[in-house]
Amino acid sequence: MPGFFDHSEIWLNQVLAGLVAGAVCGYLGVWVVLRRVVFVAAALGEVAGLGVVMAFFLALHFVPDPAPPAGQASAPRATVALSSPPAGPRSGRAADDAHDDARDDAGVGEPQAGVLSDDDLAAFLTEVGVEQAGQAMGTADAGASPEAGADGGAAAVARRGEVFDEQGVRAYAAPPTGAKRSGGSGGHAEPEVPPWLQPMAVAVVFVVVAASLLSATPRYRRITQESVVGFAYLAASGLLVLVAARIPQGTHEIRHVLYGDSVALDPGQLQVLLGTAGAVALLHVLMFKEFLFVSFDPETAQASGIRTRTVGLLLLVGIGVVIATASRAIGALPAFAFLVLPAVGALLCVSSLRAAFMLAATLGAAASFLGYYLAWVWNFPAGATRAVTAAVLVVPALVVRAVRGS
């Protein structure tokens, strides 16, 4: 398997997003743990995933296809089914994910007209490090046939040397026109999705509405707040699976959104995450004292004239928006893990609240990077590895706590 740092063009955006999400979620996790709203955060994560797949569903059914160019007949859009890359040094889960993400970034595998050529597929497999992709796709010479004789074999080797390298991989050659494909090899443009149907926009709306409902106190005494949170979690989980089953890319999206198996990341998603993290950080800088007052002494805060319900809702909405953006970028599973586990470790190690915020952010970022690196090296799913790494980092905190307690 090629070295990790040899392929920074693949993982750079995903690692940066993980560092930001780990640090911000780690910081917010201290609020989540101390306010005892861990299950509220879990429910908001499921609601964010539901918002993402709902955006795909709405765009699929309510966004019209663009008109074909003049003089060109419209063709039905078809999804190209691609086989898994052949076994090699990068075979395994991480290689498959890198293969899928590279095809997604290039527009391959998306709804398109026409048929993907073997040359293009071999080139994309080569770009993500799959060796002997040309031979696997039938675009490379396997060698001279026995009937060709010595001269035929020499000629085949000569032809092979002109096109393929010593590993049997043909370098990517741009199309003769030099034009970038739009929507696939057929040249058809993809439908323009309006901003209000973008996955992040729909997810944020879902999360804000859910946070508002979950912050309300039930009117019936027999119905507790935990019951409402459980209802939201289960309803969102079930609807997510049902809606994802009705969209062509449902399996692919539900895996990335829920479990964070994506190896690469679109630059636009990284920019959205950075913008959201900056806005939430600014909000906490301006209202840190109010958040602290309302979280730990709401009666005194209300007596002092602070609108405790509004401030508490604002805190919960900020957490929910970060969950939505982080779930879209790195997956709901690692985002939820960073909201809980680094904060638990920090609160076990230090007694100062400000130190706990800083340590939790550091542990979240460290768990994100280390987990992604281990997933790359060991061919594990990135999201699950990040979550387990965050859990492992709690163990030293338990040791420190035991030593200090003794």
Describe what this molecule looks like in 3D.
There is one protein chain. Helix 8 (225-244) runs antiparallel to helix 9 (250-259). The protein has two domains: 4-61 and 197-405, ABC transporter involved in vitamin B12 uptake, BtuC, CATH 1.10.3470.10; 75-163, no CATH class. Mean pLDDT is 75; it is low at 75-95, 105-115, 133-150, 156-164 and 168-188. It is an all-alpha fold and 406 residues long. The protein is globular. 41% of the residues are buried. It has 16 helices and no strands.
How is the topology of this model organized?
Elements: H1 8-34, H2 38-62, H3 93-106, H4 118-127, H5 133-136, H6 149-163, H7 199-214, H8 225-244, H9 250-259, H10 267-296, H11 298-303, H12 308-330, H13 332-349, H14 353-378, H15 382-392, H16 394-405
Helix pairs in contact: 1-10, 1-12, 1-13, 1-14, 2-7, 2-8, 2-9, 2-12, 2-13, 7-12, 8-9, 9-12, 10-12, 12-13, 13-14, 13-15, 13-16, 14-15
Low-confidence stretches: 75-95, 105-115, 133-150, 156-164, 168-188
Largest sheet: none
Number of strands: 0
What percentage of the residues does DSSP assign to strands (E)? under 5%
How far is it from the N-terminal to the C-terminal residue, by CA? 46 Å
Count of structural domains:
2
The helix/strand order is HHHHHHHHHHHHHHHH
Shape: globular
Examine the coordinates and then state which fold CATH places here, giving the name of the CATH topology of the largest domain.
Answer: ABC transporter involved in vitamin B12 uptake, BtuC
The average pLDDT value, as a whole number, equals 75
Please bin the fraction of helical residues. 55-70%
Nearest-angstrom radius of gyration? Answer: 25 Å
CATH superfamily of the largest domain: ABC transporter involved in vitamin B12 uptake, BtuC
Which CATH class of the largest domain is shown?
Mainly Alpha
